[in-house]
Write a structure and sequence with these properties.
By secondary structure, this protein is mostly helical. It is 77% helix and 0% strand. Helix 9 crosses helix 17, helix 16 runs antiparallel to helix 17 and helix 18 runs antiparallel to helix 20. Its main location: membrane.
Length: 436
């Protein structure tokens, strides 16, 4: 077999292993090792080459941003800032039709700006927002759907772990990616809120009887709004203001944000030693999982480079003459389809290294392409049969009457709105690059 054929066979074997239920990093590592072994003819050389790839990846200074933002997100979660964000957002939107649903979107947007983890948002607001909406007469399907839909904001609004991962894979500035995610993230939140308001105005029965009621009884006093909102605003301003103001790098911002979240938790007396120990354990587990994913992705990239598959794929695309937009649109469709069966990180780890050698000669703006990739990947968080956000919500629910099907159906309108925002970012790249 030629190296190109070996590379294709390794790729196919990796996909089969993932479908068979293998852990994604294991499938990537095994297919990479066997592929390099077959290309070079030496298992020892294959092991050394892949060990070198792992060492170079994990020793990167920029990788330090991952555990720091994960730690900050978990500290924010256990200190009750998610509930405070929900209370403030609900107060601000209580007079609007569907105000409780719009408030949930707003709370998720706020929470996303200090965590960057969509799964954390889904778990937190399933316990906070869903019971509250059901209590006020909203349909169960809508209640879980709005939480599922708005939870994906955590992967786009900076700081975002997916943007960090993309930056590591493509060697792009994480700070630039964060800035590029601001306008699309706000646009997506506005699309969700507008969609809820229009549905409540013209088809209120879809949201339930609660959409017609006034939420005035949940209003906070001005002092309570300040008390609940000020810590959140302070932390967002500290992290994002420091990055955009040039006071510190994204890695340093993660450390400053961790310290700020811990200080706020202690000042609010909402962070105990037991909670902090659990946060450290959870952070270690998530960071270790991400480490394995990134190491496996680098091994996979090395194997692909040795096989010549990316170069051959690029030559095929060039000869096919489908053009710039043909390549971009085919990639977006492939990402959305893969989202139905794989998690977001795995999609990026598999496709980005494959596409990068094709995109660079075409002059594609990799910052804009990163935003396009993240939005397309996010759609997969809401689509069956995988839909990781949907499964997180189901596991966090204390209501057996709400099925997985209900959550998927409730999330479907939000997935369609995400596709609409994706189309806008594709048509108008300045939405992503205008602030850079």
């Amino acid at each position: 077999m030629t190296p190109f054929e070996i590379g294709l066979a390794s790729f196919g074997a990796m996909v089969v292993m993932i479908y068979a239920g293998f852990w994604v990093p294991f499938a990537l590592m095994l297919s990479s090792y066997v592929g390099v072994w077959a290309i070079k003819g030496s298992p020892l050389l294959a092991g050394k080459l892949l060990a070198l790839a792992a060492s170079e990846t994990i020793s990167s200074y920029f990788f330090g941003v991952v555990p720091l933002f994960v730690l900050m997100g978990y500290v924010v979660s256990v200190t009750g800032m998610g509930r405070d964000a929900f209370d403030v957002a609900n107060h601000l939107f209580r007079r609007l039709r569907g105000g409780l649903g719009i408030g949930t979107v707003g709370a998720n947007a706020i929470f996303a700006a200090i965590t960057g983890i969509s799964i954390a948002s889904a778990a937190v607001f399933t316990r906070i927002a869903v019971p509250e909406m059901i209590r006020h007469g909203y349909a169960k399907r809508f209640a879980v759907g709005v939480v599922a839909g708005s939870s994906v904001l955590g992967m786009l609004i900076p700081p975002s772990l997916l943007l960090i991962l993309y930056g590591l894979l493509t060697e792009q500035s994480v700070g630039d990616l964060f800035i590029a995610g601001i306008v699309p993230g706000i646009l997506l939140a506005l699309a969700f809120g507008s969609g809820i308001w229009l549905t409540a105005l013209f088809w209120p029965a879809r949201l339930g009887t609660g959409v017609m009621t006034d939420q005035a009884e949940s209003a906070l006093t001005p002092a309570e709004v300040v008390a609940k909102g000020l810590p959140i605003v302070a932390l967002i301003g500290l992290v994002l203001g420091g990055i955009y103001g040039g006071f510190f790098t994204p890695i340093e911002a993660g450390a400053v944000g961790c310290l700020g979240a811990i200080v706020l938790g202690l000042a609010r007396r909402s962070l105990s030693w037991r909670d902090f120990w659990q946060v450290l354990q959870d952070t270690g587990l998530v960071t270790a999982a991400i480490c394995f994913l990134i190491i496996a992705a680098q091994m996979y990239s090395r194997m692909l480079a040795l096989s010549g598959v990316p170069a051959g794929f690029g030559a095929y695309v060039a000869s096919a003459e489908i053009g710039y937009w043909g390549v971009i649109l085919a990639y977006v469709v492939l990402v959305i389809l893969m989202g139905a069966i794989l998690d977001s990180s795995s999609i990026m780890l598999i496709l980005v290294p494959l596409m990068l050698p094709v995109l660079v000669p075409m002059g594609v703006d990799l910052i804009w392409f990163g935003i396009v990739t993240v939005i397309a990947v996010e759609v997969g968080l809401l689509t069956p049969p995988f839909g990781i956000s949907v499964f997180v919500i189901k596991s966090a629910l204390d209501d057996p009457s709400i099925s997985l099907g209900d959550i998927f159906l409730g999330a479907a309108p939000f997935a369609l709105l995400m596709v609409l925002v994706l189309a806008l970012v594709l048509a108008f790249p300045v939405l992503a690059t205008g602030l850079i």
